[in-house]
Amino acid sequence: MKTISTAKSHDGVQGVYSHASEACAGDMTFAVFVPPQAKHGPCPVVWYLSGLTCTHQNVMDKGEYRRLAAELGLIIVCPDTSPRGENVPDEKDNWQFGCGAGFYLDATQEPFAKNYRMYSYIAEELPALIAREFPADMKRQAIFGHSMGGHGALTIALKHPDRFKSCSAFAPIVHPMVAGWSKPALEKYLGADETSWRAYDAVALIEGGKSFPEFLVDQGKADTFLDDGLRPWLLDDACKAAGIPLTLRMQEGYDHSYFFISTFMNDHLRWHAERLAK
Amino acid sequence: MKTISTAKSHDGVQGVYSHASEACAGDMTFAVFVPPQAKHGPCPVVWYLSGLTCTHQNVMDKGEYRRLAAELGLIIVCPDTSPRGENVPDEKDNWQFGCGAGFYLDATQEPFAKNYRMYSYIAEELPALIAREFPADMKRQAIFGHSMGGHGALTIALKHPDRFKSCSAFAPIVHPMVAGWSKPALEKYLGADETSWRAYDAVALIEGGKSFPEFLVDQGKADTFLDDGLRPWLLDDACKAAGIPLTLRMQEGYDHSYFFISTFMNDHLRWHAERLAK
Questions:
Q1: Where is the active site (chains A, B) (predicted)?
Q2: Above 90 in pLDDT, residue B180?
Q3: Which residues of chain B are within 8 Å of residue A263 when distances are taken between CB atoms?
Q4: Cα–Cα–Cα angle for A231, A235, A237, rounded to 5 degrees
Q5: Is residue A76 within 8 Å of A61, Cβ to Cβ?
């Protein structure tokens, strides 16, 4: 692991790091905030997965998580959203596919199967690195994210209910199999057989029997992607049918941006901290 | 005035606007956060002046001022740092001069005198626009800033002690006449006669008899610009000699970045809110 930068912030350390990733067959960059409490012992880990077009940097700059994370003693890990680099296949004019659009899945189709393995990266490789390199209490982990990253948080939590004590999302893509802006990506990464897509779709996972203790979702009502890409009511239906408690808060006037995310960041961090303390 | 964007944030509105500026002979962009309290009446105005290379956007993205401004009921105005545009003379390879480096002064030298009039812009033209277009209580104003913007805040406050109820700064350039990274700019904007520079230098203004009720300054001790560019002890000396109370906090381990600024943003907003309430 290579340290790209560190800066003191809110009495903790905001760092940016890179490492050679086996899962993604290339260098990956990520950000970690370590709170001041880590001087005295391992701290719980909260994973934040970002949305389409983002890197680790968007939430690091605009997410406004450090003040409360420093107060609550939370390590915040912010990975990149896809593999990147000269040898990574990409569609430069398509913001919904390729670089910046890894969809937290393991691609099976060529030429993407070699690098686009964000599911294995986030679920297996990066946690091992975090456990090794940071003062992290890996018995206490939580996960959340925004948009495509909300999709990532929901699906990864549903597959690892024993690992994560809590899961929440800002404006998640809850049913990417049917959403206009994600369906083409699933097809290119996973092939035409839609049954293979269900492993990376929160609604389909719940329909298929996966479960989680409870979810918190915030969704802006002025989000221009609400009706086509996001449709949180589909998650609400699936959770109701499966008996999973979902706190879905439709927020009047808020859009899809980090102005929305940062407004409700503290609510989510408190939600996680309460459950991590149990 | 043209609205470029607005987004709901912390129950207020973060907007970006542009207008044809007479002072700068061209279009200028700025950001304004209006807190929810403005629905019920005019709110006090806090001016944040940014540092070298910044636009209105850096602090809007990374300053983390909205949560507390929304709680305290403060309008936050974040102007650009210089004129910009095709017809504005610039030195593209020099980050300490030209675009992004207006130094909050009125240039007298050609070819800069036409556009580089940030003092008149911030002290006269933009306040008139804010008073006209926003629910602003112009009888209650405060000013602060970072680095070059800290210099701007200090000098403008010293010239307008009756307008501003409070002034603070993050890592300000307190004595630009003698600092390596600002002296060449003063010479190019104002000419070789150093007596003309004193009107835009906090230490020189205080030595010349200008005063202000009190200042708050935070300075990171790990700031790489501390010894050459910033030297807050020179302000401390000048304030002591003039009997101006200065709260100078040297912050262990903090650098010059927005990770530093956002850490102490709430302290500064509370400092201003207390004095604006008097």
A1: 147, 223, 256
A2: no
A3: 8-11, 66-67
A4: 105
A5: no
Q: What angle do CA B246, B248, B251 make, to 5 degrees?
A: 170
* Residue B228, pLDDT score: 86
ipTM of the complex: 0.95
Domain count, chain A: 1
What pLDDT was estimated at residue B257?
98
B49 within domain boundaries? yes
pTM, entire model? 0.97
Residue A173 pLDDT more than 90? yes
| Alpha-carbon gap, residue A202 to A206, rounded angstroms | 6
Tokens representing residue A19 in the block: 């490492």
Distance from C-alpha of B123 to C-alpha of B106, rounded to nearest angstrom: 11
Tokens 């409870």 belong to A214
Residue span of the structural domain in which A148 resides: 2-276
Beta strands in chain B (DSSP E): 2-9, 12-21, 26-34, 43-49, 75-79, 136-146, 164-170, 215-220, 246-251
Our separate counts of H helices and E strands in chain B read 9, 9
Q: d(Cα B177, Cα B20) in Å, to the nearest integer?
A: 31
The count of other CB atoms within 10 Å of the CB of residue B100 is: 20
The pLDDT value recorded for residue B12 is 98
CATH of the domain at B216: 3.40.50.1820
Confidence of residue B181 (pLDDT cuts 50, 70, 90): confident
By a Cβ cutoff of 8 Å, what residues of chain B touch chain A?
7-11, 14, 61-62, 64, 66-67, 220, 222, 253-255, 257-260, 262-263, 266
Nearest CB partner across the interface for A8, out of B8, B61, B254 = B254
3-state secondary structure of B117: strand
Please check whether residue B38 is in contact with residue B135, taking contact to mean a CB–CB distance below 8 angstroms. Answer: yes
Closest CA relative to residue B144, chosen from B197, B65, B207: B65
Smallest Cβ–Cβ distance between B259 and the set A14, A220, A266 belongs to A14
Answer yes or no: are the C-beta atoms of B167 and B160 closer than 8 Å.
no
In a domain, B86, yes or no: yes
